Protein backbone atom coordinates (compact mmCIF):
# COMPACT_ATOMS: atom_id res chain seq x y z
CA UNK A 1 0.00 0.00 0.00
CA UNK A 2 1.34 3.43 -0.92
CA UNK A 3 2.02 5.70 2.02
CA UNK A 4 0.04 8.96 2.11
CA UNK A 5 3.10 10.88 3.28
CA UNK A 6 4.37 13.08 0.42
CA UNK A 7 7.91 12.65 -0.80
CA UNK A 8 10.23 15.39 0.44
CA UNK A 9 13.58 16.68 -0.90
CA UNK A 10 15.33 15.04 2.07
CA UNK A 11 14.06 11.51 1.36
CA UNK A 12 16.68 9.05 0.16
CA UNK A 13 16.21 7.90 -3.43
CA UNK A 14 16.22 4.29 -2.16
CA UNK A 15 13.29 5.05 0.15
CA UNK A 16 11.40 6.71 -2.70
CA UNK A 17 11.89 3.71 -4.97
CA UNK A 18 10.93 1.33 -2.16
CA UNK A 19 7.48 2.91 -2.21
CA UNK A 20 7.05 2.24 -5.94
CA UNK A 21 9.86 1.04 -8.19
CA UNK A 22 8.08 2.48 -11.25
CA UNK A 23 9.13 5.91 -9.96
CA UNK A 24 12.47 5.17 -11.63
CA UNK A 25 10.81 6.29 -14.86
CA UNK A 26 9.82 9.61 -13.27
CA UNK A 27 13.49 10.22 -12.50
CA UNK A 28 14.48 9.24 -16.06
CA UNK A 29 11.86 11.53 -17.62
CA UNK A 30 13.16 14.37 -15.49
CA UNK A 31 16.72 13.85 -16.77
CA UNK A 32 18.37 11.08 -18.83
CA UNK A 33 21.16 11.25 -16.23
CA UNK A 34 18.96 9.04 -14.01
CA UNK A 35 18.82 6.15 -16.48
CA UNK A 36 21.55 4.52 -14.36
CA UNK A 37 18.86 3.85 -11.74
CA UNK A 38 17.53 1.12 -14.04
CA UNK A 39 20.69 -0.82 -13.19
CA UNK A 40 19.87 -2.72 -10.02
CA UNK A 41 23.51 -3.07 -8.96
CA UNK A 42 24.06 0.66 -9.32
CA UNK A 43 20.90 1.43 -7.34
CA UNK A 44 22.32 -0.52 -4.39
CA UNK A 45 24.95 2.19 -3.90
CA UNK A 46 23.70 5.41 -5.44
CA UNK A 47 20.08 5.28 -4.31
CA UNK A 48 20.75 4.58 -0.65
CA UNK A 49 23.36 7.35 -0.30
CA UNK A 50 21.71 10.21 -2.21
CA UNK A 51 18.66 12.27 -1.30
CA UNK A 52 16.14 13.55 -3.85
CA UNK A 53 17.54 17.04 -3.40
CA UNK A 54 21.12 15.87 -4.02
CA UNK A 55 20.01 13.84 -7.03
CA UNK A 56 18.32 16.88 -8.56
CA UNK A 57 21.42 18.96 -7.97
CA UNK A 58 23.61 16.33 -9.62
CA UNK A 59 21.33 16.22 -12.69
CA UNK A 60 21.18 20.04 -12.77
CA UNK A 61 17.38 20.20 -12.56
CA UNK A 62 15.10 22.06 -10.09
CA UNK A 63 14.46 20.11 -6.90
CA UNK A 64 10.87 21.40 -6.66
CA UNK A 65 10.06 20.05 -10.11
CA UNK A 66 11.42 16.57 -9.34
CA UNK A 67 9.61 16.38 -5.98
CA UNK A 68 6.38 17.57 -7.64
CA UNK A 69 6.59 14.94 -10.40
CA UNK A 70 7.34 12.12 -7.94
CA UNK A 71 4.39 13.03 -5.72
CA UNK A 72 2.12 13.44 -8.75
CA UNK A 73 3.01 9.92 -9.88
CA UNK A 74 1.87 8.66 -6.47
CA UNK A 75 -1.35 10.66 -6.68
CA UNK A 76 -0.11 13.03 -3.99
CA UNK A 77 0.76 16.03 -6.16
CA UNK A 78 -1.07 19.30 -6.24
CA UNK A 79 -2.82 20.79 -9.29
CA UNK A 80 0.12 22.90 -10.42
CA UNK A 81 1.55 21.85 -13.79
CA UNK A 82 5.03 20.42 -13.79
CA UNK A 83 7.81 22.58 -15.16
CA UNK A 84 9.07 21.51 -18.61
CA UNK A 85 11.35 18.53 -18.19
CA UNK A 86 14.03 19.29 -20.75
CA UNK A 87 17.24 18.17 -19.12
CA UNK A 88 20.15 20.56 -18.95
CA UNK A 89 23.21 19.23 -20.73
CA UNK A 90 26.06 18.38 -18.39
CA UNK A 91 28.87 20.89 -18.30
CA UNK A 92 31.82 21.81 -16.16
CA UNK A 93 30.45 22.78 -12.75
CA UNK A 94 33.19 24.08 -10.51
CA UNK A 95 32.26 24.91 -6.95
CA UNK A 96 33.18 28.22 -5.31
CA UNK A 97 36.55 26.73 -4.36
CA UNK A 98 39.35 25.93 -6.82
CA UNK A 99 41.84 23.20 -6.07
CA UNK A 100 45.57 24.08 -6.13
CA UNK A 101 47.05 23.10 -9.48
CA UNK A 102 50.66 22.93 -8.29
CA UNK A 103 50.08 20.40 -5.50
CA UNK A 104 50.76 16.63 -5.63
CA UNK A 105 47.63 14.80 -6.79
CA UNK A 106 46.46 11.38 -5.54
CA UNK A 107 44.19 9.70 -8.09
CA UNK A 108 41.26 7.49 -7.03
CA UNK A 109 38.77 6.12 -9.56
CA UNK A 110 35.65 4.47 -8.08
CA UNK A 111 33.51 4.53 -11.22
CA UNK A 112 33.70 0.80 -11.80
CA UNK A 113 32.96 0.08 -8.13
CA UNK A 114 29.78 2.11 -8.41
CA UNK A 115 28.75 0.53 -11.71
CA UNK A 116 29.13 -2.93 -10.15
CA UNK A 117 27.14 -1.97 -7.05
CA UNK A 118 30.16 -2.00 -4.74
CA UNK A 119 30.17 0.64 -2.02
CA UNK A 120 33.51 2.55 -2.27
CA UNK A 121 33.34 4.57 0.96
CA UNK A 122 36.12 2.60 2.68
CA UNK A 123 38.46 3.07 -0.29
CA UNK A 124 37.77 6.79 -0.30
CA UNK A 125 38.32 7.24 3.43
CA UNK A 126 41.51 5.13 3.30
CA UNK A 127 42.81 7.39 0.54
CA UNK A 128 41.90 10.47 2.59
CA UNK A 129 43.70 9.08 5.64
CA UNK A 130 46.84 8.46 3.57
CA UNK A 131 47.04 12.01 2.18
CA UNK A 132 50.15 13.94 3.13
CA UNK A 133 50.19 17.66 3.92
CA UNK A 134 49.52 19.57 0.71
CA UNK A 135 48.18 16.58 -1.27
CA UNK A 136 45.03 16.84 -3.36
CA UNK A 137 42.70 13.86 -3.78
CA UNK A 138 41.23 13.60 -7.29
CA UNK A 139 38.16 11.36 -7.13
CA UNK A 140 36.44 10.04 -10.26
CA UNK A 141 32.81 8.93 -9.81
CA UNK A 142 29.65 8.39 -11.86
CA UNK A 143 27.68 11.01 -9.92
CA UNK A 144 28.52 14.01 -7.78
CA UNK A 145 29.16 12.51 -4.31
CA UNK A 146 27.38 15.26 -2.38
CA UNK A 147 27.27 13.35 0.95
CA UNK A 148 31.09 13.33 1.00
CA UNK A 149 31.20 17.13 0.96
CA UNK A 150 29.74 17.31 4.46
CA UNK A 151 31.70 14.35 5.84
CA UNK A 152 35.07 15.66 4.63
CA UNK A 153 34.09 19.26 5.28
CA UNK A 154 33.94 18.35 8.98
CA UNK A 155 37.60 17.32 8.66
CA UNK A 156 38.62 20.65 7.15
CA UNK A 157 38.57 19.68 3.46
CA UNK A 158 37.44 22.00 0.69
CA UNK A 159 36.17 20.53 -2.58
CA UNK A 160 35.72 21.33 -6.24
CA UNK A 161 33.51 19.30 -8.56
CA UNK A 162 33.20 19.16 -12.34
CA UNK A 163 30.99 17.07 -14.63
CA UNK A 164 32.63 15.68 -17.78
CA UNK A 165 29.37 13.88 -18.67
CA UNK A 166 26.16 12.89 -16.91
CA UNK A 167 27.86 9.77 -15.49
CA UNK A 168 31.45 10.99 -15.26
CA UNK A 169 32.53 13.39 -12.50
CA UNK A 170 35.81 14.71 -11.17
CA UNK A 171 35.93 15.90 -7.56
CA UNK A 172 39.01 17.31 -5.88
CA UNK A 173 39.44 17.36 -2.08
CA UNK A 174 42.20 19.27 -0.28
CA UNK A 175 42.92 21.08 2.96
CA UNK A 176 43.43 24.78 2.21
CA UNK A 177 46.06 26.93 3.94
CA UNK A 178 43.21 28.91 5.47
CA UNK A 179 41.01 26.36 7.27
CA UNK A 180 37.45 26.13 6.00
CA UNK A 181 34.56 26.56 8.41
CA UNK A 182 33.22 23.20 9.64
CA UNK A 183 30.23 21.95 7.66
CA UNK A 184 27.11 21.38 9.72
CA UNK A 185 24.17 19.79 7.93
CA UNK A 186 21.64 20.28 10.74
CA UNK A 187 21.71 20.91 14.48
CA UNK A 188 21.41 17.86 16.75
CA UNK A 189 18.14 17.75 18.62
CA UNK A 190 19.50 16.18 21.81
CA UNK A 191 20.58 18.26 24.80
CA UNK A 192 24.25 18.28 25.73
CA UNK A 193 23.39 16.48 28.97
CA UNK A 194 21.68 13.79 26.93
CA UNK A 195 24.97 12.47 25.50
CA UNK A 196 27.82 11.23 27.73
CA UNK A 197 31.35 12.51 27.22
CA UNK A 198 33.79 10.41 25.20
CA UNK A 199 36.38 8.39 27.07
CA UNK A 200 39.23 6.08 26.05
CA UNK A 201 36.87 3.15 25.55
CA UNK A 202 33.74 4.76 24.10
CA UNK A 203 33.04 7.35 21.39
CA UNK A 204 29.54 8.86 21.27
CA UNK A 205 27.98 10.11 18.02
CA UNK A 206 24.61 11.87 18.10
CA UNK A 207 23.03 11.80 14.62
CA UNK A 208 19.52 12.85 15.61
CA UNK A 209 18.33 15.83 13.62
CA UNK A 210 20.46 15.09 10.56
CA UNK A 211 18.85 14.27 7.23
CA UNK A 212 19.70 11.00 5.43
CA UNK A 213 22.24 9.95 4.34
CA UNK A 214 24.20 12.13 6.76
CA UNK A 215 23.80 9.81 9.83
CA UNK A 216 25.20 6.83 7.94
CA UNK A 217 28.05 8.80 6.36
CA UNK A 218 29.06 10.32 9.71
CA UNK A 219 28.98 6.92 11.39
CA UNK A 220 31.09 5.23 8.69
CA UNK A 221 33.59 8.10 8.85
CA UNK A 222 33.95 7.71 12.63
CA UNK A 223 34.43 3.96 12.27
CA UNK A 224 37.41 4.55 9.98
CA UNK A 225 39.38 5.80 13.01
CA UNK A 226 37.84 3.57 15.71
CA UNK A 227 40.68 1.86 17.57
CA UNK A 228 40.54 -1.87 18.42
CA UNK A 229 38.80 -2.28 21.76
CA UNK A 230 36.85 0.95 21.39
CA UNK A 231 33.08 1.13 20.99
CA UNK A 232 31.20 3.67 18.91
CA UNK A 233 27.78 4.50 20.34
CA UNK A 234 25.49 5.97 17.72
CA UNK A 235 22.49 7.84 19.16
CA UNK A 236 19.70 7.91 16.61
CA UNK A 237 15.98 8.59 16.46
CA UNK A 238 15.31 5.35 14.56
CA UNK A 239 16.91 1.98 13.85
CA UNK A 240 19.46 2.58 11.02
CA UNK A 241 18.33 -0.25 8.74
CA UNK A 242 20.62 0.65 5.82
CA UNK A 243 23.67 0.98 8.06
CA UNK A 244 23.48 -2.48 9.65
CA UNK A 245 24.45 -4.61 6.60
CA UNK A 246 27.31 -2.20 5.89
CA UNK A 247 28.61 -2.80 9.43
CA UNK A 248 28.65 -6.54 8.82
CA UNK A 249 30.53 -6.07 5.55
CA UNK A 250 33.19 -4.07 7.42
CA UNK A 251 33.67 -6.58 10.23
CA UNK A 252 31.74 -4.83 13.00
CA UNK A 253 29.17 -6.17 15.45
CA UNK A 254 26.38 -4.13 17.00
CA UNK A 255 23.78 -4.11 19.74
CA UNK A 256 20.59 -2.05 19.52
CA UNK A 257 18.63 -0.56 22.43
CA UNK A 258 15.31 0.96 21.34
CA UNK A 259 13.64 0.86 24.74
CA UNK A 260 13.40 4.64 25.05
CA UNK A 261 10.92 6.70 22.99
CA UNK A 262 12.46 8.57 20.04
CA UNK A 263 15.95 7.43 21.00
CA UNK A 264 17.75 4.40 19.58
CA UNK A 265 21.24 3.53 20.80
CA UNK A 266 23.48 1.40 18.56
CA UNK A 267 26.70 0.12 20.17
CA UNK A 268 29.22 -0.75 17.43
CA UNK A 269 32.45 -2.67 18.02
CA UNK A 270 35.08 -4.52 16.02
CA UNK A 271 34.21 -8.19 15.65
CA UNK A 272 36.51 -10.41 17.73
Counted by DSSP, the helix tally is 10
Quick check: average pLDDT?
Answer: 80
CATH architecture grouping of the largest domain: Orthogonal Bundle
User: What percent of residues are in strands?
Assistant: 15-25%
Number of domains: 3
Unreliable residue stretches: 79-94, 184-192
The percent of residues in helical segments reads 25-40%
Q: If you compute it from the alpha carbons, what radius of gyration comes out, rounded to the nearest whole angstrom?
A: 19 Å
Number of strands: 8
Listing every helix as H and every strand as E from the N terminus to the C terminus, the arrangement reads HHHHHEHHEHEEEHEHEE
Secondary structure layout plus pairing:
Layout (H helix, E strand, L loop, with lengths): L12 H7 L4 H7 L9 H10 L2 H8 L3 H11 L31 E5 L1 H5 L5 H9 L6 E6 L4 H8 L4 E8 L2 E7 L27 E5 L7 H10 L7 E6 L6 H7 L2 E9 L2 E8 L2
Parallel strand pairs: 1-2, 5-6
Antiparallel strand pairs: 2-4, 3-4, 6-8, 7-8
Helix pairs in contact: 1-3, 8-9
Amino acid sequence: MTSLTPISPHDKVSDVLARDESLIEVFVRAAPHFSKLRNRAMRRVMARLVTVEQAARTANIPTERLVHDLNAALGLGDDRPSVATTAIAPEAKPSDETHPTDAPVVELDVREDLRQGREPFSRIMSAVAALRDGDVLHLRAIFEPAPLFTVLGRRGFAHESMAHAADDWSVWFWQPATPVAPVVAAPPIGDADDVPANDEHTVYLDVRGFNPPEPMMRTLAELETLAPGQTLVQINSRIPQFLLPMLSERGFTWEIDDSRPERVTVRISHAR
